[in-house]
Amino acid sequence: MDPVIILVEPQLGENIGMAARAMANFGVTDLRLVRPRDGWPSEKARNAASRADHVIGKTLKFETVEEAVADLDFVYATTARQRDMLKTVRHPVEAAQILRTTVNTGGKVGIMFGRERWGLNNDEVALANEILTLPVDPDFSSLNIAQAVLIICYEWRMSGSDREAALPFETPDVPRASKEDMVRLFDHFEEALDEVGFFRPPEKRQHMVQNLRTILQKGDWAEQEVRTLRGVVAALQRRHERSRQ
Amino acid sequence: MDPVIILVEPQLGENIGMAARAMANFGVTDLRLVRPRDGWPSEKARNAASRADHVIGKTLKFETVEEAVADLDFVYATTARQRDMLKTVRHPVEAAQILRTTVNTGGKVGIMFGRERWGLNNDEVALANEILTLPVDPDFSSLNIAQAVLIICYEWRMSGSDREAALPFETPDVPRASKEDMVRLFDHFEEALDEVGFFRPPEKRQHMVQNLRTILQKGDWAEQEVRTLRGVVAALQRRHERSRQ
């Protein structure tokens, strides 16, 4: 059970579609509209949703906010400005955790978003359990609806899974080079550099070797990467041998 | 010092403007464009930025990705699909923390975003230190550029509230190698390896170069360490020249 996203009197079909797409990006699919200005269904919305048809297709339209939230147990009102109400104000991270806990205990939850121009009115905010606001720059706080929906659905998704598991793909899982591999790489490098008289003067050799080993150590390389590097050194060495003959 | 946002070959001015607005929402203001299709400056971008003129006004345009990242010390490549590279893949939360730590130790950081249609190519990804991807629904993973920028700038802003625990002692504070230093190291290595015919067969060269750059990238080396490595390559090269005579 994911949260229901409620857009109150959205004006532009494009914004409804972009909100639907933002929801779909993070696996949220229940969209409700209260008195969309240009009516519903909307071609502009479907186009802007760019293939989030599974969201657009089951979007519900309501005449009042009260009806739109009637079956929900816990609702957030999103707002960018402070209201003269004694309501708890939450950051998206905390809000997502509270919604997750409510859902996990059998509750049905929703998040209300207001009009493009001036958001939700105080009567609508008053219907919500708590207020949700975003940590925007106070000097540039106007987010469009789709972007507010995006961030909140992103936090919802994160609250549900450990982060790595939520990623579409992960760092390739390849065996790390062992210290033995690394020491072979060190020896190989140092042999090649001795051949070309790199470590001069001799009394500096130990310190130069320590530096080089520190540098090579930083790579935290995979086995196959260390093999590649040894191939590099070998290639440069073979050239010497060839050219010596 | 906030991260630099780099858009590679953005097609639509609207997307550039929406990205600028998303940056401004979270206090990020340095935008760089590589070969924007419709040129720069762009009226469409300025309109879509809806008053994020402080971002649009100082946006820089570059001809190549290498130039766009030359002065940066640590760069993320954002991508929605897995690449055949042994690069570390980070979630936005971890990436923001890594960027914050780098900035706090004097590093200059950036985040690259690809084209609307097909993102960054592998050569561009190979230039980055690590890969950044978003925890989207694998069945609906296409985010537009502005929304990817929005979420990452949001996490950047959130990472600022974290405090680093005081350590008994710290990593020596030495200047990190810039991307320019790294690209010189890449070129130097590849030149030396071309001399010895390492990149065979020719059609494999590009992929071998990408692997080698990925390997060298992992060191996160200081300027002086990259100088040492170039000395290593030069020593091995000089030997060839001498022995060729």
Please explain how this structure is put together.
- The structure is a homodimer of 245-residue chains.
- Chain A has a seven-stranded parallel β-sheet with strand order 3-2-1-6-4-7-5.
- In chain A, strand 1, helix 1 (13-25) and strand 2 form a beta-alpha-beta unit.
- In chain A, 48% of the residues lie in helices and 11% in strands.
- The longest helix of chain A is centred in the last third of the chain and has 22 residues, at 223-244.
- The first copy, chain A, is elongated and about 85 Å long.
- Chain A has two domains: 4-166, Alpha/beta knot; 179-244.
- Chain A contains eleven helices and seven strands.
- Chain A has 245 residues and is an alpha/beta fold.
- At the A-B interface, helix 1, helix 7, helix 8, helix 9 and helix 10 of A face helix 1, helix 7, helix 8, helix 9 and helix 10 of B.
- Chains A, B: It is found in: Cytoplasm.
- Chains A, B: Catalyzes the formation of 2'O-methylated cytidine (Cm32) or 2'O-methylated uridine (Um32) at position 32 in tRNA.
- Chains A, B: GO terms for molecular function: RNA binding; tRNA (cytidine(32)-2'-O)-methyltransferase activity; tRNA (cytidine(32)/uridine(32)-2'-O)-methyltransferase activity.
- Chains A, B: Belongs to the class IV-like SAM-binding methyltransferase superfamily. RNA methyltransferase TrmH family.
- Chains A, B: Homodimer.
